[in-house]
């Protein structure tokens, strides 16, 4: 496709009239951080970052871009793991940031709904819910920066999917600015509403390719009154699976997180993250973080944890365990898990595989993918971790010690293809929760080709015929 020309001065002037000076960044020192991604895989260029303050301003901006045929890249917290929110390198695309759409419009503790604008961070939305005795049951390590619009546009998963599902399971209504600048107001908060195609679910997970989410109504649940967290050392993912099955059999409804970490990934956290401590007597090949939560006071979760873990210690399923005795200990254990991405980044270059397989196949998948990667690249450091309870493993590879980072990153397709071959053998997915972005569209024909991809392309053409919404992302 030929490159589009950069936005004209006339377009930028008209946009400035809509959003004012504080709604627009044009100095390259200001725009550059918005044009690069968290993983530092991509550095694009843009002549402006537009920051509308209201949905009407956003709609007017998109209307102007549509009339000029100028492509836009919607951006929330810019924490995408797949380069989903960065513009291209030739400067033809404008970034439209939702950062100033940051109002909490309504919280209804009777209906258990939260209405927020797209630029509210996930953390701020969680806090607003907690202040009213409710829980917004979605938790990801980037929640301090990721925004509701981005979270919905990527259908984020995270630590509590095992219990509450993914972001799309929490959406009741959306307000969206369409590619021609019109506003679709679907901000309904009904639990039942069978009125044709489910448009809110079409925009959820669409990665900015169909329109810009401006606001959303989210489902809340009662805030847990009791929470219990344990960290266990285990020999293998097989042992972790045995433990998971025991928790599920005992009381599946109280398992709010069941996370797996490799010994090596945890070593990286202990090495690179100040204050991180392992609360066990010795290091283990793998670790499980199990969290139980209940809205019932006196639910007896600690007793349940102790009973299951004592039995698991006795029969050798686990090597060691620590149960958090305070809020400080609970967050220290969670920190070991949440800092995995940052620690891996500090250790060197990494190639990520955000994959899912049926939960029962996680151990076999990890074993086979590890062997396949070692055969492909002797010395590569395998760092699998993630959401074992829902079958989503971040099968990440760290560059071999002492190797050249650029050389390693240049092997990304070979490594991802090797891992994905194992994923396919278990009927898994090459993209569990981070999405497709700029990194993975080339995989789409192979995994979602035929009628499925053709249908997606027809939906894109119907809603965004000029192709101005986030070009080059998601679809090949
Ligand atoms: P961005 O990165 O700004 O954008 C992501 C995509 O959504 C882009 O395609 C963008 O164009 C589009 N978009 C953004 N806002 C809108 C909007 N308002 N309307 C339409 N499209 C929009 N992800 C998980 O699923 N689970 C995790 O556990 C998890 N942990 C993470 C931990 C770390 C340390 C980091 C850096 C990332 C993690 N992620 C995780 C990935 C990322 O945080 C999520 O994908 C998050 O949902 C992105 O939100 P964001 O606001 O940063 O979106
Ligand atoms: C997590 O679960 C995130 O912590 C990031 O999804 C995973 O760094 C990664 O690959
Ligand atoms: Zn994850």
Overall description:
Helices cover 36% and strands 20% of the residues. The protein has 476 residues and is of the alpha+beta class. Bound molecules: flavin-adenine dinucleotide (FAD), (2R)-2-hydroxypentanedioic acid (2HG) and zinc ion. Zinc ion (ZN) binds next to strand 18.
Secondary-structure map with pairings?
Elements: H1 9-19, E1 24-25, H2 28-35, E2 49-50, H3 55-68, E3 72-75, E4 94-97, E5 104-108, E6 113-117, H4 122-131, E7 134-135, H5 148-153, H6 161-164, E8 171-177, E9 183-186, H7 199-203, E10 212-219, E11 221-222, E12 226-234, H8 237-251, E13 255-262, H9 263-272, E14 286-294, H10 301-314, E15 320-323, H11 327-338, H12 340-347, E16 350-351, E17 354-356, H13 362-376, E18 381-387, E19 392-398, H14 405-409, H15 412-425, H16 444-448, H17 451-463
Helix pairs in contact: 1-3, 8-10, 8-13, 9-12, 13-15
The structure holds flavin-adenine dinucleotide, (2R)-2-hydroxypentanedioic acid (2HG) and zinc ion.
(2R)-2-hydroxypentanedioic acid binds next to helix 12 and strand 19.
In the CATH hierarchy, what is the architecture of the largest domain at level 2? 2-Layer Sandwich
CATH class of the largest domain: Alpha Beta
Small molecules (ligands, ions, cofactors) in the structure: flavin-adenine dinucleotide, (2R)-2-hydroxypentanedioic acid, zinc ion
Instruction: Count structural domains.
Output: 4
What structural class do the secondary elements suggest?
alpha+beta
Give the averaged pLDDT, no decimals: 97
The overall strand count is: 19
**What is the overall silhouette?**
globular
Biggest beta-sheet profile: 8 strands, antiparallel
Low-pLDDT runs: none
- The number of helical segments is 17
Radius of gyration: 23 Å
Cα-to-Cα separation, first versus last residue: 12 Å
- Which fold does the CATH topology of the largest domain refer to? Uridine Diphospho-n-acetylenolpyruvylglucosamine Reductase, domain 3
Content of β-strand: 15-25%
As a percent range, the share of helical residues equals 25-40%
């Amino acid at each position: 496709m030929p490159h589009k020309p950069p936005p004209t001065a006339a377009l930028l002037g008209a946009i400035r009239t809509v959003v004012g000076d504080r709604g627009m960044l044009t100095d390259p020192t200001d725009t550059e951080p918005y044009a690069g991604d968290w993983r530092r895989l991509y550095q694009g260029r843009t002549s402006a970052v537009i920051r509308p303050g209201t949905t009407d301003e956003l709609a007017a901006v998109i209307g102007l871009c549509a009339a000029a045929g100028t492509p836009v890249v919607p951006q929330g917290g810019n924490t995408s793991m797949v380069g989903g929110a960065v513009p291209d390198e030739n400067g033809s695309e404008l970034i439209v940031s939702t950062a100033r759409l940051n109002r909490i419009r309504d919280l209804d503790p009777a209906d258990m709904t939260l209405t927020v604008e797209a630029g509210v961070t996930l953390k701020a939305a969680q806090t607003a819910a907690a202040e009213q005795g409710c829980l917004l049951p979605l938790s990801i390590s980037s929640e301090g920066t990721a925004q509701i619009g981005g979270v919905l546009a990527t259908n984020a998963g995270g630590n509590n999917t095992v219990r509450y599902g993914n972001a799309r399971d929490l959406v009741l209504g959306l307000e969206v600015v369409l590619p021609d600048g019109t506003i679709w107001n679907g901000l309904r908060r009904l639990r039942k509403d069978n009125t044709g195609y489910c448009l809110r679910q079409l925009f959820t997970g669409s990665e900015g390719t169909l329109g810009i989410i401006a606001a959303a109504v989210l489902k809340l649940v009662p805030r847990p009154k009791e929470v219990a967290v344990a960290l266990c050392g285990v020999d293998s993912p097989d042992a972790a699976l045995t433990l998971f099955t025991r928790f599920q059999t005992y009381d599946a409804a109280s398992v709010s997180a069941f996370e797996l970490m490799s010994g090596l990934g945890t070593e990286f956290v202990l090495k690179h993250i100040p204050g991180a401590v392992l609360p066990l007597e010795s290091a283990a090949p793998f670790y499980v973080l199990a969290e139980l939560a209940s809205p019932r006071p006196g639910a007896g979760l600690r007793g349940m944890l102790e009973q299951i873990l004592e039995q698991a210690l006795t029969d050798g399923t686990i090597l060691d365990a620590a149960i958090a005795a305070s809020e400080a200990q609970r967050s220290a254990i969670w920190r070991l898990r949440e800092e995995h991405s940052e620690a891996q980044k500090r250790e060197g270059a990494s190639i990520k595989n955000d994959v899912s397989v049926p939960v029962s196949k996680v151990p076999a998948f990890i074993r086979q993918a590890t062997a396949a990667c070692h055969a492909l690249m002797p010395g590569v450091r395998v760092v699998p971790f993630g959401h074992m309870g829902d079958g989503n493993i971040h099968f990440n590879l760290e560059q071999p010690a002492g190797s050249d980072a650029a050389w390693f990153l240049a092997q990304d397709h070979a490594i991802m293809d090797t891992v994905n071959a194992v994923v396919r053998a278990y009927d898994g997915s090459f993209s569990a929760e981070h999405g497709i972005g700029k990194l993975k569209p080339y995989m789409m024909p192979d995994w979602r080709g035929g009628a499925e991809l053709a249908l997606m392309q027809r939906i894109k053409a119907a809603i965004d015929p000029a192709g101005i919404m986030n070009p080059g992302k998601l679809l090949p």
